[in-house]
Amino acid sequence: MHTRLLDRLPPVSTLGPFIALIVASLFFASQSDRFLSGQNFSLILQQVMIVGVIALGQTLIVLTAGIDLSCGMVMALGSVVMSKFAVDLGINPYVAVGCGIAVCAAIGALNGALVTRIKLPAFIVTLGTMNIAFALTQIYSGAQTVTDVPDSMMFFGNTFQLGQTAITYGTVLMIGLYILTWLFLRDTAPGRHVYAVGNNPESARLTGIATGKVMLGVYMAAGLLYGVASMLSVARMGVGDPQAGATDNLDSITAVVIGGTSLFGGRGSIVGTLIGVLIVGVFRNGLTLMGVPSVYQVLVTGVLVILAVATDQLTHKKG
C-alpha cells in the first residue's frame, strides 16, 4: 500500500517546486493581507503570462539539452513587426499578427537549422541570433515605441469577470497552451521523441528517430510560441515596444530550471515549468507587497536559479 501511494505521487522534480510554491505563498500571505485576494492572483498571472509562454518554448529546447538566449529579443522583434505592419502599413491587424508570429517562427527555424545542420552549439547560435534580433528590432522601429495599435490587437489584454475577479483572456490562452503542450509531450509519439533525443540522441537515432527533424521542429515550435508571446506583449501593453523582452530570456530559463527541467536534457515537465513561472511571479509580487526594492527581487531570483541548477547537477551526478 505504501509503495503504491508513492508511485502515484508526482516526480520529485515537480513535487519539490510545488511545495516551494505553497511555502512561498503561505509566507507572503502572512506578510500581506492583500496577497491571498483573487485580484492579486489574477495580477500575478497577468504579470507572468508573457514569460510563461516564452518559457514553454524554452522548455521544449532545454528538454533536448539545448538552450535559447534569443527568445526575449525574438519576442520583441515580433511585437514590433506586427504593430508596425498594422499601424504604419495599414495591414489587417490579424494578418499583421500572423506576420509577426511568422517572423519569430523563421528565426526559430534558423536557430534549429544552425544547430542541426552545421552542428553549432545552441548557446553560441542563440547568442548570435539574440543580437541580430535586437539590432533588427532597433533598426526597424527606429528605437521608437509603436503607438495607436488597433483595438483588435489588444483583445488578449482585455478582461472578463469570474465572480469578483477580473481575468485577462491572455492568461486563459497561456494556460490553454500549457495544457496542449503537456498533452503533446505526454500522449504523442513526436512528444516522446523530444524526451528521447534529449536523453540520448545517439540511442534515439539508432532506434529510427529522425533526431535532426525533431530538433528542427522543437526550435520552430519555440519560435511560434515566442510569436504568441509577442501578441500577448502588444495586447497587455497596448504598444509595440522595442525595449521589451530584455530580461525575458533569463526569466524563462529561471522558470524552466526552477520548475525541475534538467539542463542536461531528457528530464522535466511542462507542469513543472508552469510552477516555476508561478514561483518567480509569486516571489516578485510578494516582495513588492512587502515593500522590498526591486533590486532585491532580482537578487532572490538569482539565488533561486543557482539553487535549482545546483540541485539538477547533484541529481544528475547521483543518477
Describe this structure in words.
This protein is 73% helix and 3% strand. The protein has 319 residues and is mainly α. The chain has a domain at 42-245. Strands 1-2 form a two-stranded antiparallel ribbon. A hairpin with a 2-residue loop joins strand 1 (159-162) and strand 2 (165-168).
Please specify the SSE layout and strand pairing.
Elements: H1 2-8, H2 12-31, H3 38-63, H4 71-87, H5 93-116, H6 122-141, E1 159-162, E2 165-168, H7 169-187, H8 189-199, H9 201-206, H10 211-237, H11 248-258, H12 270-289, H13 294-318
Antiparallel strand pairs: 1-2
Which features does this protein show?
319 residues; two-stranded antiparallel ribbon; 2 strands; mainly alpha; 73% helix; globular
How much helical structure, as a percent, in the residues? over 70%
Order of helices and strands: HHHHHHEEHHHHHHH
User: Which secondary-structure class do the elements indicate?
Assistant: mainly alpha
Strand content: under 5%
* Backbone CA Rg: 20 Å
Per DSSP E runs of 2 or more residues, the count of β-strands stands at 2
Number of contiguous helices: 13
**Strand order of the main beta sheet, please?**
1-2
- Unreliable residue runs: none
Shape: globular
Mean pLDDT: 90
Q: Please give the alpha-carbon distance between the first and last residues.
A: 26 Å
The description of the largest β-sheet is: 2 strands, antiparallel
Quick structural summary:
The chain has 319 residues and is mainly α. It has helices at 2-8, 12-31, 38-63, 71-87, 93-116, 122-141, 169-187, 189-199, 201-206, 211-237, 248-258, 270-289, 294-318; strands spanning 159-162, 165-168. It has a domain at 42-245.
